[in-house]
Amino acid sequence: MSTPEASPPSLYAAREPIFPRRVKGHFRTAKWWIMAITLGIYYITPWIRWDRGPNLPDQAVLLDLANRRFFFFMIEIWPHEFYFVAGLLIMAGLGLFLFTSAAGRVWCGYACPQTVWTDLFILVERWIEGDRNARIRLHRSKWTGEKIRKSAIKWGTWFLIGLATGGAWIFYFTDAPTLLRDLVTLSAHPVAWITMLILTMTTFIFGGFMREQVCIYMCPWPRIQAAMMDEDTITIAYRDWRGEPRGKPAADKGDCIDCMACVNVCPMGIDIRNGQQLACITCGLCIDACNDMMDRIGKPRGLIDYIALTDEARERKGEPAIPAWKHILRLRTILYTALWAGVGVALVVALFLRSPIDVNVTPVRNPTFVTLSDGTIRNTYEIRLRNMEGEARWFSFSVEDPSLALSVEGGENGRTLVAANETAHVRLYVTAAPGTPAATTQRSDIRLWIEGDPVPGVKDSKDRVSKDTVFNGKGN
Fold it and tell me: What is d(CA 470, CA 476) in angstroms, rounded to the nearest whole number?
């Protein structure tokens, strides 16, 4: 009788929850501080006020999508200035490359939103259910009244944190006090409710249930980081030459007593003693746990530590480690720093040199010119003029060539009024008298000047910009 073939093993396994143990130390303290600072910045920033005048919002940081503007304290970014946002994103990417090449995944271990909110959720879990062993026992136990009560409190607290997270995010896109009032009175726009619900649930699920799986399976950075790191990168490593063979303290054993403290505190559930791993976010908690154990058994600290691979090789030979600054100041990091600083300087220079008047000049091509009854040649131009001040402002037009005259359709004495923070479309007429060079030349280069009058209480002097265009004449 033939036996049925065994089914192949599944390529996918159910997630085993990780319950990190509480630990104290320098790195855990640093993570608490970074968590408090980053969460504080995130939740408080929408409520900071900044006086920009009566016609502009007073929220310090505001992504005003309705009016297509971005406010950051004294800086105002318009849609045509999106290169500032692109530059900031480039700086963020270069900064990530710089820190990773110098000190490994410090972003992932300390400041990544997934890390910060997961740390907060684990803290809530520990407060409600107890430390590691208590949480493991509760997880493995049957559903009793006590387990239901603790789980409900935990999930409810997670949901409130997620709700605050989603709520804080939408406050960046509209006036925060007004939106809060609309939310409380249930009169907010459906888009606000939907956005807040999506962010609430993603925070609740990612920070509460998926945790390390987001870092391992969803985030691309663990796979990119290998290209950013080399043997001189300072990262977390286990000094196996010192720790092996593991076991209870004895003359023929290494310093590692196989207490599993480094594994039990790891939020990713890995064993750093097995070498560099994709899942390691270099948070430093295993260092704190190992140092605490070394203090207890009277061994030197640093069995697990931030160390470069080159230093590890030198230590095996009994040679002194290279100073940390030499690992940091090397060609790769210097290049990243130079690029990062170059982009930053360029953005600052562009910010101070940008014109407060945005003008676009388009000659009307149909017809290219009109001959008036007295023989005068007239060209028409469509002007898109943006007033980037918080007050209504008069703009006047002039042409550099004295033989040309101009007028503004619907304007007064060659000028037009543009409302605060608005874009006006103006039709401009430029004429050349019969027999002048511009009238008898098929195509002449001209320069238009646009001048904005001072705004009382806002600007003390005029702003002036020029635009080059062409004047079409009859030709010979």
Answer: 17
Domain boundaries, the chain: 14-354, 357-472
Give backbone dihedrals phi and psi of 305, rounded to 5 degrees, phi first: -160, 170
Shortest CA distance to 223 belongs to which of 108, 311, 340? 108
Q: Give me the pLDDT at residue 8, please.
A: 67
What is the DSSP code (8-state) at residue 220?
S
Strands 69-72 and 75-77: antiparallel
CA 97 to chain centre: 14
Which CATH topology does 357-472 take?
A: Immunoglobulin-like (2.60.40)
Q: Tokens for 123? A: 């803290």
- Asked if residue 134 lies in contact with residue 147, where contact means CB atoms within 8 angstroms, the answer is no
Matching residue, tokens 């290219």: 368
Tokens of 394: 């008069």
- State yes or no: pLDDT of 318 exceeds 80: yes
pLDDT in tens, 270-291: 999 998 888 999 999 999 999 9
Alpha carbons 191 and 46: distance in angstroms, whole number = 18
Instruction: Report d(CA 329, CA 46) in Å as an integer.
Output: 38
Peptide bond before 222: cis, by omega within 30 degrees of 0?
no
User: Which residue(s) pair with 417 in the sheet?
Assistant: 394
Residue 189 tokens, joined: 């726009």
Q: Which of 157, 171, 158, 167 lies closest to 199, judged by CA?
A: 167
Distance CA 60, CA 77 (A): 13
Please list the residues that pair with 470 across neighbouring strands: 445
Question: What's the DSSP call for residue 321?
Answer: P
- Amino acid letter, residue 240: D
pLDDT digits (tens, 9 = 90+) for 51-105: 877 777 889 999 988 777 888 988 888 877 888 889 999 999 999 999 999 988 8
Q: Please, how many CA atoms are within 13 Å of residue 105, restricted to the half-sphere of its CB?
A: 25
How far, in Å, are 33, 143, 169, 433 from residue 402 at the CA level?
66, 90, 55, 11
Q: How many whole angstroms separate alpha carbon 362 and alpha carbon 427? A: 10
**pTM score of the predicted model:** 0.82
Residue 38 to residue 111: CA distance in whole angstroms: 8
